[in-house]
Design goal:
The chain is of the alpha+beta class. It has one domain: von Willebrand factor, type A domain (Rossmann fold), CATH 3.40.50.410. The chain is about 40% helix and about 15% strand. The chain is built from 3 helices and 3 strands, in the order E-H-E-E-H-H. It has a 3-stranded mixed beta sheet with strand order 1-2-3, sandwiched between helices. The protein is globular, with a radius of gyration of 16 Å. This is Integrator complex subunit 6 isoform X3.
Length: about 110
């Protein structure tokens, strides 16, 4: 069961506008939505789980965990707003901690264990 984690920058700088007038955050959310639609067409994606993590301070950065359903993920994605500071280090650490936790729970890395 693959887990796809999306880490979106929700700092205030994402309120900048593109030459088309949309914000950078809107562009990022649109890219995630397009990916999700394209991935849903693949029959191998039936077991996929999705996570949505933002640059907000932990634990508020986790918007949708791997146990959430698709509707919750999409609702959280649409409700994202850009504010605050860019905390890239904390956001990356949160993302990797969550992925490593899932690997531990699912038993993916069980080689060498007795």
């Amino acid at each position: 069961m693959p887990i796809l984690l999306f880490l979106l920058d929700t700092s205030a700088s994402m309120n900048q506008r593109t030459y088309l007038g949309t914000t950078y955050l809107d562009v990022a959310k649109g890219a995630v939505e397009v990916f999700m639609k394209l991935r849903a067409r693949d029959p191998a994606s039936r077991g996929d789980r999705y996570m949505l993590v933002t640059f907000d301070d932990p634990p508020y950065g986790v918007k949708a965990g791997w146990k959430e359903n698709h509707a919750t993920f999409m609702c959280e994605l649409k409700n994202l707003q850009a504010s605050g500071l860019t905390t890239l280090g904390h956001a990356l650490r949160t993302a990797f901690d969550l992925l490593n936790l899932n690997r531990l729970i699912s038993g993916i890395d069980n080689y060498g264990q007795v």
